[in-house]
């Protein structure tokens, strides 16, 4: 069952699948998978970017290898994440991932957020191809899957999710190491 | 005019195509593209002569040194000792015993910070660094300062990436016991006026250490002309193996320093009551050293000598000027580090594109650069940047490779709009 999962948003940049691989080295396709239009869009117009006054929880994510820093702020309403924001700087992947995350997480319960985090880890962390069920569940965040082919960049994509995880756990700091 | 003519002549004598044949790795294909290796400031590639020297050592001479009476041990000892003589002449040290084999520049600096620093630094003494040091020339001093109560002071950096020497008189006071400065900035390529700084340090009674990790591959180092008390460099950045480096120290200074690590080979006599140590350099070389590394490093130095420094320097300076202009012309690119005297390094940023994204797209074109803070977080903070993209050159790089870099940067610009 090697069926390709339905893509939630068709990347415009991606070229006709039957012709391109014959003429271009495979790497270019991988680059297109990495910098899909959703990623570039969230990089250029990050959603929920900014600080938050009196957050219920916040956590700082740090990638010591590249120096990227990112802070996630949560405003809780009971068990629900009523609002989520992020600040920081980093590459297109880390910024887009944080932006996509905020869109996915806003309005979810803590338990739902934890299960989203687990899905993203399964999606990004090297190993077997993630289950199709996972790929269907993550919505637009499927665009992050391209980093699997770029081991050096996986931590860029997971940074914000680590920060969210430690914010939910009430710990102020997360690192990709 | 005459000087330019000579330079042009020596540049034309440098046959880069022939030189590239000496480096087997340069034939690598990356995803269907010929490799363009522009990460030489991180580590340089190795000529066949170095690979052969290391391989010959293990296939024909391998034995431990300084202790066996047998044939192979004598051969290995002889090759190791000759490597030290080669290193001494490379640095123009007065005597080979002033050259201590270490793992690399980092260990060389740690040796000084640990042995000299913890014996000589007192509460309130000052260690003077610069704002463009690599973490390897910051952290060992912080550790020594923590242990002794000494204080770290920093020579600031200008927006153009040069040392700001306006306030040097205020910084270099008799409280300073040691100046530790990088010869060439690994992040920017800036060549620092180390000879001037060393004179000034000596004038207030301080010692001076030069971090030569980036300079040894590009400049002709003369430790006696610099008059530095210490000079540290890494073998792998001068086309030698990883795991070997050299700490040069003036004999008079090294002689007064206690051992750095204890073990075999560094002792005269050991009893449980008292141990006496050997002289220089063995006192600082506990345990079996990286014998093959020292031999490989010597082979690299001989290889460089055969190329000739003048020809290499002329080619590199032409290449850096060419690449700076070509890369600088790409829309949205800003060159970081505009000191008039630079070697080897072209650091830049692109508007609205993070250096890591540049690095990934370039890798996709077979071009290897470094992206990030280059182990210079304080410098990046000073320049207000999260990091830079850094192309760093060696004598085997070509103008055609600089053109491929430029073309790939145009693609990056298009991708990120």
Descriptive notes:
The complex is a heterodimer of chains A (177) and B (417). In chain A, 40% of the residues are buried. Chain A is an alpha+beta fold. Chain A has one domain: Sufe protein. Chain: A, CATH 3.90.1010.10. Chain A is globular and about 45 Å long. Chain A starts with 19 loop residues before the first helix and ends with a strand. Chain A is 40% helix and 17% strand. With 417 residues, chain B is α/β, with parallel strands linked by helices. In chain B, the strands form five sheets. A seven-stranded mixed β-sheet of chain B has the order 4-10-9-8-7-5-6, with helices on both faces. In chain B, strands 13-14-17-16 form a four-stranded antiparallel β-sheet, with helices on one face. In chain B, a hairpin with an 8-residue loop joins strand 13 and strand 14. Chain B is globular. Chains A and B meet through helix 2, helix 3 and helix 4 of A and helix 13 of B.
Give the arrangement of secondary structure elements:
The complex is a heterodimer of chains A (177) and B (417).
Chain A lengths: L19 H4 L2 H9 L2 H8 L12 E7 L4 E10 L2 E10 L2 H14 L4 H15 L7 H6 L16 H15 L4 E3 L2
Parallel strand pairs in A: 1-4
Antiparallel strand pairs in A: 1-2, 2-3
Helix pairs in contact in A: 3-4, 4-7, 5-7
Chain B lengths: L1 H12 L2 H6 L7 E2 L2 E2 L1 E2 L10 H14 L9 H21 L7 E4 L2 H16 L5 E5 L8 H10 L2 E5 L12 H4 L4 E7 L11 H10 L3 E5 L11 H4 L3 E5 L10 E5 L1 H4 L12 E4 L4 E3 L13 H17 L1 H20 L4 E4 L8 E6 L4 H10 L2 E2 L1 E3 L4 H7 L4 E5 L6 H18 L1
Parallel strand pairs in B: 3-15, 5-6, 5-7, 7-8, 8-9
Antiparallel strand pairs in B: 1-2, 4-10, 9-10, 11-12, 13-14, 14-17, 16-17
Q: What oligomerization state is this entry in?
A: heterodimer
Distance between the termini of chain A: 35 Å
Share of helix of chain A, binned = 40-55%
CATH topology of the largest domain in chain B: Aspartate Aminotransferase, domain 2
- CATH architecture label of the largest domain in chain B: 3-Layer(aba) Sandwich
Rg measurement of chain B, Å = 22 Å
Q: Biggest interface in this structure? A: A-B, 25 and 22 residues
CATH architecture of chain A: Alpha-Beta Complex
Task: Work out the count of structural domains of chain A.
Answer: 1
Strand percentage of chain B, roughly? 15-25%
Apparent shape of chain A: globular
Radius of gyration of chain A: 16 Å
CATH class of chain A: Alpha Beta
Q: Tell me, what is the CATH class of the largest domain in chain B?
A: Alpha Beta
How many H/I helices of chain B?
A: 15
How many domains of chain B? The number is: 2
Largest sheet of chain A: 4 strands, mixed
Strand order of the largest sheet of chain B: 4-10-9-8-7-5-6
Provide the low-confidence segments of chain A as ranges: 1-27
Record field, number of beta strands of chain A: 4
| Low-pLDDT stretches of chain B | 1-11
